[in-house]
Specification:
The chain is of the alpha+beta class. It is 22% helix and 31% strand. It has 12 helices and 37 strands. Strands 6, 7, 8, 9, 12, 13, 15, 16, 20 and 21 form a 10-stranded antiparallel beta sheet that branches. Helix 4 packs parallel to helix 5, helix 7 packs parallel to helix 8 and helix 10 packs parallel to helix 11. It is globular, with a radius of gyration of 28 Å. The termini are far apart. About 2% of the residues have low confidence. The structure holds (2R,3S,4R,5S)-2-(hydroxymethyl)piperidine-3,4,5-triol.
């Protein structure tokens, strides 16, 4: 008996030793980044390292254990957990142990690691997914939760990602604002406790805060140096980022759906998949982090990210709701005159019982207003075709005005409280996309229009209201599912639209830039960054969005906002993104009109460089009275530099702007373009030949002390 016990004990020891020697080390790697997890003796998973790639595999054994990777509620941790589950028996704890992991290649340059964890007392499984984009240095993470308890468990929170950092100092940049005042960049140092960035607006989710952040380590964020993590959540709804510093000055970053009013009852064997969280880690400042995102977005994420974008003329600011066929045809002529690709008809073309003559009525009734458009959309697409321009159309299919036939017929499709007075945001309410019938209806808005008018070449999909009066008739006793199921319902619809119309470009709009996330951009080719088209404000707004989005997806239109600025200044600002116009040529001076025409031609010639090249932010508008940004073609043979003097001081000293991203050994001809007809360039050394080395080390005298002055310079190899 004794011998047997000793034998068994020995066996146990050997097994333990093998296990200890065997403890998995899991590496998620890109070209420059390593994220390393280790399984500890207790069988739990720890984040051991996140930082610059470690190229000597022998060193990895010396990494500290780190912090538990995906911390749970109810155990020994004292700070914010990644997950909180309540089991059938009311027990609110979870203890996750490593079970296995897999690694596989998704496509060349893209690898996926999946780590499976399980509770040792309850049949709950958590899978952590990491998809690493090698060249772009970007990692996408999401989690999947499932269980086999007898009845549903309640998910109180469940993060897409939890990252741990251990540095001296952390600086967070948030992107917040309001309507017409999007993505203000504010940087603040983090100290003990929590800083939360979130939204609980439901539909127009990013009206006050965009779902991305920059986290600079051991110093403030710089454009071209320093370690910085840039993260964003792909979720077109309530999101939350929690940054919490603990008693040891260690930081955890928890990203995911906002758990606010969203306890989710998860059925046995159902999988709860969180949204994707994407992050990049740059060792050369914000500029490199942005370029990582831009490359990744165009290659892997945005709808038709590798394809062309259309320039356009929109009628919104030219007419608002006050138009008829004649006015629209005149605007189509303007589009032709300007040389843009498309005419886009905005809000105000639909509804008959309650014609859409203002934003007070008609939303939901998607048939043409007979006295405004007696010949319907068909006449407009036909006319556009004859004139050689494409035709695009505005819709807002998720919403309804109470003064509409849709509301009268289907009150049960509307998110509103049954027993309270309704509260309206922009006189409208949100349809209940958790209901599959409503999903069919919303899909039908696009599908019916496309079936009837197959020549529609583009949609602008607007979403002006947050979710208010939150109650769903459809969800009955599952009201806390509404925020989540709304977004899932929206994705069902968008998925169907994309499947049926894979090449139909669509602009995402939400009362300006109220929706700005990468999951939505799987279904949209571009987004409307702001209703604020004052070019000075746009310099800041575009600067903000450019931190995570490429110019290709940001729509920028020339309008009449801020008439103190010249048409040249306004156009030059818009040309840094996806160019459009929202203006009447009849209100313009002939010279201005000629300028715009030439600018469109220049834009078409330089579009690939601007939209598909590498962006370098040279001088920040946040730093003073000037700003400059440049775009360099991938082959480094062509570049375009934009420079703006906003409100320079009298006799201010201006320094040359040093360019970036060129080939030091190539010779480039520098030429100012976008000049007003009849005027000459005042750029020193214009049309001269320079080496890339000179342009990057000495630079060009792009700035002046003139108020509201702008310059566009084309740089081409000989
Ligand atoms: C809000 C959008 O941001 C505008 O561009 C315009 O489409 C209006 N809605 C129309 O109602």
């Amino acid at each position: 008996m004794k011998k047997r016990t000793i034998f068994l004990l020995c066996l146990l020891c050997i097994t333990c030793m093998v296990k200890a020697a065997d403890k998995p080390v899991i590496k998620i790697s890109t070209e420059n980044i390593d994220l390393i997890y280790k399984v500890s003796d207790n069988g739990r998973l720890y984040q051991s390292y996140l930082g610059k790639k470690l190229n000597h595999s022998g060193d990895i054994a010396y990494l500290p254990q780190g912090t538990e990777a995906y911390l749970t509620h109810g155990m020994e941790d004292y700070f914010e957990p990644a997950i909180h589950v309540v089991h059938n028996d009311g027990n609110p704890s979870l203890l996750l142990k490593y079970i296995s992991h897999t690694e596989n290649q998704v496509s060349p340059g893209v690898n996926e690691v999946t780590i499976t964890l399980q509770d040792d007392k309850y049949p709950v499984t958590v899978k952590l997914h990491y998809i690493a984009y090698h060249k772009e240095n970007l990692i996408k993470t999401f989690s999947e939760i499932s269980h086999q308890e007898k009845k549903p468990v309640v998910l109180h929170k469940c993060a897409s990602s939890m990252l741990h950092l251990n540095r001296n100092q952390y600086f967070l940049t948030e992107f917040s604002g309001d309507w017409a005042n999007e993505v203000h960049m504010t940087e603040l140092p983090l100290a003990f406790g929590k800083k939360i960035l979130d939204s609980k607006l439901g539909a127009r989710a990013n009206m006050f805060c965009s779902p991305f952040f920059q986290l600079s380590l051991d110093g403030k964020a710089e454009e071209n140096q320093g370690e910085i993590i840039v993260g964003t959540l792909g979720w077109t709804g309530n999101f939350r980022f929690t940054f919490e510093i603990d008693n040891k000055n260690e930081l955890r970053v928890i990203s995911g759906i906002n758990p606010y009013a969203s306890e989710y009852s998860l059925k046995p064997n159902e999988i709860f998949r969180t949204p994707d969280f994407y992050f990049t880690y740059s060792f050369a400042g914000k500029g490199q982090a942005s370029r990582n995102f831009h490359d990744w977005a165009r290659k892997y994420q945005v709808k038709n990210g590798d394809q062309n974008r259309m320039t356009l003329l929109n009628n919104w600011e030219a007419t608002y709701f006050d138009f008829n066929e004649e006015k629209l045809v005149k605007l189509m002529d303007d589009a032709v005159e300007l040389g843009v690709d498309m005419f886009l008809l905005d809000d105000g073309w639909f509804a008959n019982k309650y014609p859409r003559s203002s934003d007070h009525q008609g939303l939901g009734d998607w048939t043409e207003t007979a006295d405004k458009l007696p010949n319907g959309i068909g006449y407009l697409t036909e006319t556009a075709k004859k004139k050689g321009v494409k035709f695009g159309l505005w819709i807002e299919p998720e919403m309804v005005n109470p003064k509409s036939e849709l509301y009268e017929k289907h009150k049960d499709w509307v998110i509103h409280l049954p027993n309270r007075e309704e509260y309206y945001f922009r006189n409208q309410l949100v349809l209940d996309l958790s209901n599959p019938k409503v999903q069919d209806y919303v899909f039908g808005v696009v599908d019916n229009l496309m079936t009837k008018y197959p020549d529609i070449a583009f949609f602008k999909w607007d979403c002006n209201s947050p979710i208010t009066n939150i109650y769903s008739v459809y969800l009955k006793d599952k009201q806390t599912h509404l925020y989540i199921d709304y977004v899932r319902g929206l994705y069902n619809v968008l998925e169907r639209v994309k499947a049926k119309y894979p090449n139909l470009p669509m602009m995402l709009c939400s009362g300006g830039g109220g929706r700005s996330d990468y999951e939505a951009l799987k279904y949209f080719t571009e987004f409307w960054a702001s209703d604020n088209t004052d070019p000075i404000e746009r310099l800041f707004i575009q600067w903000g969005f450019s931190q995570v989005f490429p110019a290709k997806v940001m729509c920028a239109h020339v309008t009449t906002w801020n008439k103190n600025t010249s048409i040249k200044f306004r156009t030059d600002v818009a040309m840094m993104c996806k160019l459009g116009f929202d203006i009447k040529l009849s209100d313009m001076e002939k010279n201005d009109e000629a300028y715009c025409r030439a600018a469109v031609q220049n834009y078409n010639r330089l579009k690939t460089t601007i939209l598909d090249g590498d962006m370098y932010r040279l001088v920040s508008p946040y730093d003073g009275n000037h700003t400059s940004t440049m775009y360099v073609g991938k082959d480094k043979n062509k570049a375009v530099v934009f420079a703006f003097d906003i409100h320079p001081r009298y006799a201010e000293k201006t320094l040359p702007v040093r360019l970036q991203g060129l080939d030091a050994n190539k010779m480039y001809r520098v030429k100012e373009i976008n000049l007003m007809p009849g005027s000459n360039s005042s750029l020193r050394n214009n049309e001269k030949l320079f080496s890339g080395e000179f342009l990057m080390n000495v630079g060009l005298d792009l700035f002046t002390t003139q108020q509201l002055f702008s310059r566009v310079v084309e740089i081409s190899i000989e």
